[in-house]
Write a structure and sequence with these properties.
Order of helices and strands: EHEEEEHEHH
Number of helices: 4
Distance between the termini: 42 Å
Strand content: 25-35%
Radius of gyration: 17 Å
Length: about 120
């Protein structure tokens, strides 16, 4: 099975989500390779997925909640080319980077609740 690749912008929310996923399941990144672009010029608010000639774009930002599926071989090739260029300039999210970002507060709370219930 191939590992999915995703590029995300770097902000407090994405740091929270990544540290939460890693804190709850360190194997999360065994099936997903993630990278970020730490550049204020990189403003990308959609989630983009390309499988073959099918492109899925989802936006869940502010008041905008929408999605679209497009079947286009040429558009998929163009988007893949843009993605590969961005991927080559990205910083990969590794356990070492996640540990530098610190332990996720929600993970701490969930672990504390679990520890309490086990001791009871």
């Amino acid at each position: 099975k191939s590992i999915s690749r995703e590029i995300i912008p770097l902000n407090e929310w994405t740091k929270h989500v990544m540290t939460y996923q890693y804190g709850m399941n360190p194997k999360y990144f065994d099936v997903l390779s993630m990278a970020y672009i730490d550049n204020p010029l990189f403003e990308f608010y959609q989630r983009l997925s390309i499988k073959g000639s099918q492109i899925r774009i989802i936006c869940e930002e502010g008041e905008e909640i929408w999605g679209i599926i497009i079947n286009s071989e040429m558009l998929a090739k163009s988007f893949n080319s843009i993605f590969n260029l961005l991927w080559s300039m990205s910083t990969f999210i590794t356990p070492e980077i996640l540990e530098k970002w610190g332990e996720n507060e929600m993970v701490k709370l969930e672990n504390a609740k679990y520890d309490k219930s086990v001791k009871s």
